[in-house]
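PROTEIN DESIGN WORKSHEET
SECTION A - STRUCTURE
LENGTH: 184
TOKENS:
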């Protein structure tokens, strides 16, 4: 049956490959964006993040709390373990955690907590950062804790171009070398 070859079709592309291509086309057309955002279905795909990095696009993606990574013996091996190692003594002494106000669709707000963790090659000043966001840094409830990987630099960190960072970074999109697009 013609047209029903599925993955055997030479024109077949996965959804994440289509997304990367469309984002590149949008950027080439002058659409300015700082980062691609994806849930853990794509966030856990090394190839997806790698293609975005090669294309020079910033990204913020969810990762599964139990997705393992290589690490030295006693170091954390999954995001949940990395979050559990962060210092916390309560709201008055939050240690590694910072309060953030989360605004919901109905306009009410709640205090959530965010921190940067280290996991394998991911860390606050690495090219990939691991950011944890939760309602409770002690119990890290499954339904109210997010584990995010991002290529965006830590504000004020060594890769933050606005602060004299050491290299071009995807958060500066489009790159300064691109011609500016003026209306008219």
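SECTION B - SEQUENCE
RESIDUE ASSIGNMENT:
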């Amino acid at each position: 049956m013609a047209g029903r070859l599925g993955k055997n079709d030479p024109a077949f592309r996965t959804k994440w490959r289509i997304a990367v291509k469309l984002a590149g086309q949008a950027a080439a057309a002058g659409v300015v964006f700082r980062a691609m955002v994806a849930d853990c279905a794509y966030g856990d795909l090394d190839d997806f993040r790698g293609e975005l990095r090669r294309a020079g696009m910033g990204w913020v993606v969810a990762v599964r709390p139990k997705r393992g990574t290589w690490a030295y013996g006693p170091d954390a091996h999954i995001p949940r373990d990395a979050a559990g190692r962060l210092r916390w003594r309560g709201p008055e002494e939050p240690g590694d955690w910072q309060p953030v106000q989360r605004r919901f669709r109905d306009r009410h707000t709640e205090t959530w907590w965010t921190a940067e963790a280290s996991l394998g090659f991911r860390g606050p000043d690495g090219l990939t950062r691991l950011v944890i966001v939760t309602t409770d840094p002690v119990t890290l409830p499954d339904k109210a804790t997010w584990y995010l990987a991002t290529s965006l630099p830590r504000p004020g960190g060594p890769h933050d171009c606005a602060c004299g960072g050491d290299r071009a970074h995807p958060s500066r999109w489009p790159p300064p070398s691109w011609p500016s697009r003026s209306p008219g």
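SECTION C - NOTES
The CA atoms of residues 2 and 95 lie 61 Å apart.
Residues 15-28 form the longest helix (14 residues).
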